[in-house]
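S1.2 Input.
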Amino acid sequence: MTYSMISDPLDVKSIETAALELLERGYSVGLDSLYCLILWALARWIPPLVATCTFFRKPSNFTPDVQLSITELAALDMCQERAIFKPMNSEEKELLKQRCGGSWKLVLRYILAGEICCRREKSQAIAGPSHSVAVTSSGSVYSFGSNSSGQLGHGTLEEEWRPRLIRSLQGIRIIQAAAGARRTMLISDAGQVYAFGKESFGEAEHTTEGSNVVTTPQLVKSLKGIYVVQAAIGNFFSAVLSREGRVYTFCWGNDSKLGHRTEPNDLEPHPLLGPLENIPVVQIAAGYCYLLALACQPSGMSVYSVGCGLGGKLGHGSMADEKYPRLIEQFQTLNLQPRVVAAGAWHAAVVGQDGRACTWGWGRYGCLGHGTEESESVPRVVESLGNMKAVHVATGDYTTFVVSDTGDVYSFGYGESSSLGHSSVIDGQGNRNANVLSPKLVTSLKKINERVVQISLTNSVYWNAHTFALTDSDKLYAFGSGDKGQLGAELPAQQTERAMPEQVDINLS
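S1.3 Output.
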C-alpha cells in the first residue's frame, strides 16, 4: 500500500477520497501509516479529531457512506457509542442531525456538551431545600433529609438522617435528578421521568395549594412520548429537556411568562416557544422564577434566559421580564464560549470553554465575586479568578462556588452561611464571618486531598442551605445546614449545621 492515491497530503478532499476508496475495496481500517497522515491533515478540524482517532482504532461497523467525509463518518461512529443516541431510530437520528445544523460533527458536539455539563452516566449529588438526592454511577438513587411531602420517595413522611436507597426503583437506571421545595424528579436512562413529593409541579414553596403528596416515585404520564434527559425545578415551575434539545415547562405560564398561557398549577408540559423552538439546548438551569438554557448552535455555544428579570438575573442589561427566551448577547462581546450554566435564586453564573467564570444578577452579600455588593445586569468576568481555569460553577441563595481544573474550590457570598465551607468564627457580639466579596479558596476541601469535580448547593430561597462536594473517586462531602438530616448524618444535640466538610457514608461508584 502506498500513498499514490493522495495527490496532495494537505488536500483534505484528496485524502478523504483515497480513504473512502480503501474502505470500499474492503481494507480494514488498521492501516496506521495512511490514517496517521489523515489524522494529521484533519487535526485542525477539532473536535472531530477525537472521533476520528476512535474510528480508526477498530474495524468499521457499518457500510461507508460515500456522501460523507471521513470526519463525518468518524463523528457518526462515535455518536453511535453515546447512551442517548443508541436508542434512536434512523429517522430520529436524521432529525437530530438537521436540528443540530446538518452535520454529524455538530451532533457529536451537542451530545458531548450535554454529557459534560450534566454529568450524564456519572454519579451526582443534589442539594435541595432541606432534602438531598444522590445518584450512583450505576443508576441507583439514595435520598435523605426532610420528608414532609414524601419527597424522599420511600413511601412514608418520615425524615431520614442517613442515605437510604429508594428500593421501588429497582431495575430502573436513573441518570439525573432534580430537587426542589418538597419535590423530587428523576430521569431514567430510557428517557422517562419519575416524580414524587408535592403533586403540583410548580406551586410556590410557602403556599398550601396542592396539598396532595406522592410518597413513592411515579411515572409522569404527561411526558409520554418525550425522551427526557434532564429536569430542573425552580420556584413556581419545573422544566425538562428532551433528547432532541427541546425545552418543556410545567406551570407558571399565565400571562405568557414562559412563552405559553397556562394556569399556575397546570400539570401538562408545554414546549417553550420563541427562539429556542429550532435551536438544540444541552442544559437547563432553573432559579427563582426564571430559566437559563445553554444552547448549541453551529456558530458555537450560547445562553438564553426567560422569566422574571428582578435584580438583572436574566443578563440583558435591565430588570425587565422576558416572556420568551432571549439570547444573552454579552458573551459575544466577551468572546466567551459558555460551557456550563448555573441559576441561583437571584443571580446566575457561567463557566466558559477557556476557563473564565462570569456572574450576574443581584450582588447582595458579594455573591457575584466582584469585590462589592453591587448588582450586574449583564455577565461580568470574575477577574480575581484569572489565575485558574474554571470547569464547574454552582450558585445558591446569595452564594457561589467555582471549581478549577485541578479540583480546587472557591466560594463567595453570604458570610453567615455555613454552606460556604469556611470556618465560622463568632465574635463577642454574636456575629459570624463578614460576607465574602471575592473568591476565597475553600481550604477545608483542600485538606481532604481529593479532586473535587462537582459542587451542588441549595439554590432556592432558603437560609438553611447545605452544600455537597463530589470527588473524582466518588466520595461525597457535605456541610451547611443539617437540621433535617440533609447532610446525611445526625448532628450532635443542639447543633443544626456543620461548617466543615465531612464525608457522607454512601457508595456512589
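S1.4 Remarks. Confidence is low (pLDDT under 50) at residues 1-15, 22-49, 203-210, 426-430.
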